[in-house]
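Quick review question:
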């Protein structure tokens, strides 16, 4: 992504421009992005980009283990974050221009841009693999920890470690803006109840919290960027037009709370967006070979956990699973951890610890394409977590009769439209050309009779880690499915 200084000197919020001479105005920086073209970012965002905490995102793959399956998926969290920062500014600015009565200030726009830029600061090695697969097994007491939690901590660390508080003040930001930015990175679910953010922004600016991470219906600029970027690198067509969404977006009052709404004729475009999300999960993110690779990386990290140590603040040393508690250590943790496992640097003649050697062997299997073997899959009939656990336990009890417990893995894949089994359009508001200030919902029967009836499904999969046991594992899985009235891939082929 190339960077060049812009000749357009419109870098600072108007509140700050008056206090500085025009000769000192710093120009916007231009980035040549393969998805959005030539984009301009204000100098404060560039200062954030040029910190070690943000630069680490260059070494964290956007799609985790997907790069081992899709050769084009080489993009990283770095460029995605820049794209989200850009789109956040585009949507906020579009609303500001179209609806001046919203009183969106330059400061508001800058905060929204920073939130978009920094929303993924907390991702660990191989993105969602770290918090979704590795951490729950490596550190069970913190199994609910998510990368958004680390993003908030890393943002605070970035500001302090690089002395950016004073820099932010120069660009017109005030202390409560930092809280505002963090609440946009990880917002509360909007339910139109009591307003709890009076110290940050007044309730009449509640819509700003829907731009980066929209808990109301999942329509946000984070998805706009990763749909376009992931599709581009995966070679999958993207049917959603985010520029059209931005063009028709308006803010309307809904039950005393302001929400971002879409034009009524855009409802089909939004269904395309959620269909694209489901398609990406089905075809790429949850691809059976992608998951095989990610299970192997997870297993390697678990074995190496206590042996790959990172220096944190105050000279402390932390293992992989504990580095997330210290942002100085976490800053050094990226996908490059597998290189430390594959090529350990040892100044002594001491032998490599057996677990670390086992971790290296697993990673070498990935490099030589000796992957965990896919045994089979079946669609689960119930989505209740307790029922799913019962099914997994039942299958595990059968598999251990023919194969060692450490030689197989049972996993459950979720495919949905982003809101579990709910139709996200049911929580989306629209307006008409004739009445652009009145928000309403569109019943699904008025959209199309071809829409999905079910918006989520769970698939139970089994992988075998040792090819010698594959035949026994497949036979056992088939038998278990038949006894529990589940269809397998083989059954579907013979129907």
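Suggested answer, residue by residue:
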């Amino acid at each position: 992504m190339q960077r060049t200084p812009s000749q357009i000197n419109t870098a600072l919020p108007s509140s700050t421009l008056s206090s500085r001479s025009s000769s000192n105005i710093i120009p916007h920086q231009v980035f040549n992005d393969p998805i959005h073209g030539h984009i301009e970012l204000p100098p404060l965002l560039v200062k954030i980009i040029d910190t070690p905490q943000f630069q680490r995102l260059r070494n964290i793959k956007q799609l985790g283990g997907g790069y081992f399956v899709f050769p084009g998926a080489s993009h990283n969290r770095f460029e995605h974050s820049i794209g989200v920062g850009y789109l956040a500014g585009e949507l906020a600015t579009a609303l500001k221009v179209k609806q001046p009565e919203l009183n969106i200030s330059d400061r508001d726009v800058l905060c929204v841009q920073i939130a978009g830029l920094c929303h993924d600061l907390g991702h660990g090695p191989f993105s969602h693999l770290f918090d979704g697969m590795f951490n729950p097994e490596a550190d069970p007491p913190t199994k609910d920890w998510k990368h958004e939690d680390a993003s908030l901590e890393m943002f605070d660390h970035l500001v302090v470690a690089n002395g950016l508080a004073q820099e932010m003040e120069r660009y017109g930001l005030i202390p409560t803006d930092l809280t505002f930015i963090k609440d946009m990175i990880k917002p509360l679910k909007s339910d139109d109840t009591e307003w709890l953010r009076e110290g940050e922004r007044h309730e009449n600016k509640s819509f700003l919290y829907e731009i980066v991470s929209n808990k109301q219906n999942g329509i946000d600029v984070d998805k706009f960027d990763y749909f376009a970027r992931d599709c581009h690198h995966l070679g999958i067509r993207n049917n959603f037009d985010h520029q059209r969404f931005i063009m028709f977006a308006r803010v309307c009052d809904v039950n005393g709370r302001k929400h971002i709404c879409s034009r009524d004729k855009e409802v089909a475009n939004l269904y395309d967006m959620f269909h694209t999300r489901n398609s990406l999960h089905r075809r790429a993110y949850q691809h059976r070979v992608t998951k095989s690779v990610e299970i192997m990386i997870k297993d390697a990290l678990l074995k190496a956990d206590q042996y790959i140590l990172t220096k944190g603040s105050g000279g402390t040393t932390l293992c992989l699973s504990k580095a997330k508690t210290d942002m100085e250590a976490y800053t050094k943790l990226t996908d490059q951890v597998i290189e430390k496992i594959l090529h350990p640097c040892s100044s002594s003649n001491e032998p490599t610890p057996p677990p670390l050697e086992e971790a290296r062997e697993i990673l070498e299997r990935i490099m030589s394409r000796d992957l965990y073997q896919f045994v089979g899959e079946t669609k689960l009939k119930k989505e209740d977590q307790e029922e799913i656990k019962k099914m997994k336990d039942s299958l595990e009890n059968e598999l251990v009769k023919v194969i060692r417990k450490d030689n197989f893995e049972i996993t459950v894949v979720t495919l949905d439209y982003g809101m579990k089994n709910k139709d996200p359009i049911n929580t989306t508001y629209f307006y008409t050309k004739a009445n652009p200030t009145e928000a309403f919902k569109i019943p699904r029967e008025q959209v199309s009779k071809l829409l999905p009836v079910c918006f989520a499904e769970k698939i139970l999969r089994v992988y075998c880690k040792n090819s010698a046991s594959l035949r026994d594992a497949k036979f056992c899985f088939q038998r278990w499915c038949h006894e529990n009235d589940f269809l397998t891939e083989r059954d579907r082929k013979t129907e």
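Why it works: The two ends are 51 Å apart (CA to CA). Confidence is low (pLDDT under 50) at residues 6-23.
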